[in-house]
Amino acid sequence: MLRRLRIRITLLAALLTGGVLVCTLLFAFTVTRRQYLDNRRAAFAEAVAQLQYQWDRYDRLEGDWLAQLEAQTGMRLLLTENGQPLLHTLRADEDTRVLFAAARRAAEQRGLDIGTPPLTGSQNADFTYSEKGGDYRCAVRMEGTAGGRWTSLVAVQSLAPEQVYTLRLAALFGLAAAVGGGGLALAGWFVAGRAVRPVGRAIDEQQRFLSAASHELRTPLAVIRANAGAALHRPDQAQTYLSVIDGEAQRMGALVDELLLLSAGASARARLRPERLEPDTFLLDFAEGMEPLAREKGRELRMCLPREAPPPVQADGYRLRQLLTILLDNALRFAPAGSAVELRLTEKGRRVRFWVTDHGPGVPDRDKQRIFRRFARGHEAEDGARHYGLGLAVAAELAALHSGRLWVEDAPGGGAAFCLELPAGR
What we know:
By secondary structure, the protein is an alpha+beta fold. The protein is built from 9 helices and 12 strands. The strands form 3 sheets. A 5-stranded antiparallel beta sheet has the order 2-1-5-4-3, sandwiched between helices. It has a 5-stranded mixed beta sheet with strand order 7-9-10-12-11. A two-stranded antiparallel ribbon has the order 6-8. α4 runs antiparallel to α5. Residues 380-385 have low confidence and may be disordered.
């Protein structure tokens, strides 16, 4: 599924970016080609105008100069005076035949016959034509004088260089499009891979979560079914079996509540009911309510408050009590019998810290991050009580919902010190 998603993202990115690339290259190709063609046409027109000016002003043209002009512009010239070609144009080659073909087309299509005096003092024609598989650009200039003398100029330039240039330019831009498209596709594949990686991790985590949750729910359900069947077959001991069923149902209910909180994610933040709480007062009330539980488990509960009252916090009192209960229950389970569990309050900057410290076996460095994951378990508690490995994950989720942090440190003298840090309220 993720591979298909990655392929689709890559294709979409390649189509979008490739479309932009192709449009950009087409625009650049069109502009470059147009500039080249405009320069060729302008150079041809300028050369024809220069030639006409030289001929009209000096009434003579040097053959070497004409040859140099033809070499520089790539054009061929047919010059006539009173219908007679000048010596420079009398060449027995293909270019001469092309020039006379252009003169015939000018006479047939434009009415400019270089062998006939012009009807007016000056006549011009510019056109393109094809001759024997080649395309040409042609300019015809005819000038007449009052004495009956007239001159004609036929200039022809092959369009083959422009066509070759266009093909080469198209190939170059096509290659750029292919290379650029391939590069964009590879970049899209890489970016898509990075984009779907969190999705893959989330899916894997969800699958592990569902698998672990199913496994954890299967155990109490099996106990409930076994005891229900035993109660049916042994009615005289039904009360005992029902008591077991009730205990397992309560534990399963607690597990379901924890699973619902973990699965709610960010939506649980909207259900918080934050209020202004005085941390020292809240912690004293919490310790008073938990004292009987600590005494029942044979542990002492100690309080350590700062001399100056810390700033208030904005928190959901019910959820904050739930979080601290998880930490304290965890400490009571792992603290040695007869030892003390400490509740401490400190302030650092504009953040208030709640500490729950025990002097049990502590948490190895390699497990300090792992124990906050779902269904993560450390070594067994001294009381042997069965737990699901969700308590600290729920506590970490509650801390995040309050924009706080939760971590564990090594306690002085041994043990674990869990710290809940919350931002101070305004």
